[in-house]
Structure formats: structure tokens, C-alpha cells
Amino acid sequence: MLVFIDANILIYRLEAVPGLGARASARLATLHAAGDRIAVSDLVRLECRVGPLKSADAALLADYDTLDMPVVRSLRSRDESSRISR
Known about the structure:
Blueprint: E1 2-4, H1 7-14, H2 21-33, E2 37-39, H3 42-54, H4 58-65, H5 78-85
Parallel strand pairs: 1-2
Helix pairs in contact: 1-2, 1-3, 3-4
């Protein structure tokens, strides 16, 4: 299954937010163990960059930039896509 996650989950995990970082990591590990794929949107990737850019944290920004997750840009169904292209 392809599971879309919000920016908060990535932020909690990568920034090790107390109480939430461990929960986010555990949930992501559970999804991975179940064979699920994790995906994010362009907006989520951009949201994750805001904090490191504001604080000039180049290391954290690099961590976000090197995440290995597919970016999904459209959720159109095949039927909807064919209607749009006509």
C-alpha cells in the first residue's frame, strides 16, 4: 500500500521531538515492516524545509533534502485523467 504522510510525522522523526519523535519512528517502522511504501507531496517537502531555513540549520536542511521517499504530485484516477485530457 502507498501511504501518504504529513509533514508533522517527518518533522517529529527527524528533529526527535520529545514524546513524538519515537512514536513517529515506530509508526514509520511498522509501515515499512508491513511492506507499505511511504510517499509525500511537494507541499510536505516544502513545509519540512521552513524550520531549518528560518534557523539556518544547514545540517537539518540536508537531512530533509536527502529523504528517500517518492513525491506524489497527482492523485487523479485513470478515469479522471482521461476526462481531463479530452
